[in-house]
Amino acid sequence: MTEPKKPPITKSFGYAFEGIFTCIRRERNMKIHCVMAVLVVIAGLILGLSPIEWCICLALFGLVMALELVNTAVESVVDLVTSEYRPLAKIAKDTAAGAVLIAAIMAAIAGLIIFVPKGLAFLGIL
């Protein structure tokens, strides 16, 4: 038996970028994540983050945004399968959203740990 032909790598990347841009256009929370990422980058440039701090911020951006993409995928599949209320559908949607929330809260805490001391020093308070 032969394996189905896979699309060229450029098409695969195209599909992935299409998914990312669709999520940014349609999902309010993804827009919020993008705005927060831009604000963190601006603050990081102003406050002079170290390379390790930049790596932490980038990893957290990636984690939160990737989980938002997965959450959107879970919600879309559940909506495709059923339009009526089902307890298992609710669990799938709620737990996917919960994963994003946990990552976002932890990212915010890490951000405070990185940025508060730098901000206070920048303002001459520390």
Automatic annotation (TrEMBL):
- Asked if the record carries the keyword DNA repair, the reply is no
Q: Which residues bind a divalent metal cation?
A: 27, 75
Q: State a single Gene Ontology molecular function.
A: metal ion binding
Give the way it sits in the membrane.
Multi-pass membrane protein
InterPro entries, A to Z:
DAGK, DAGK_sf, UDPK
Which GO terms are recorded in the biological process aspect for this UniProt protein? phospholipid biosynthetic process
**What are the binding positions for ATP in this chain?**
15, 27, 75, 93-94
Q: Which Gene3D superfamilies match?
A: 1.10.287.3610
Cofactor comment: Mn(2+), Zn(2+), Cd(2+) and Co(2+) support activity to lesser extents.
TM regions (residue ranges): 34-67, 96-116
Q: One GO cellular component term, please give it.
A: plasma membrane
The positions annotated for binding substrate are 68
Q: Which residues form the active site?
A: 68
Which compartments is it annotated to reside in?
Cell membrane
What Pfam family is a match for this entry?
A: DAGK_prokar
Q: Which keywords does this chain's UniProt record carry?
A: ATP-binding, Cell membrane, Kinase, Lipid biosynthesis, Lipid metabolism, Magnesium, Membrane, Metal-binding, Nucleotide-binding, Phospholipid biosynthesis, Phospholipid metabolism, Transferase, Transmembrane, Transmembrane helix
Name the coenzymes or cofactors required.
Answer: Mg(2+)
At the top level, the lineage of the source is Bacteria
Belongs to which family? Belongs to the bacterial diacylglycerol kinase family.
Q: What is this protein called?
A: Diacylglycerol kinase family protein
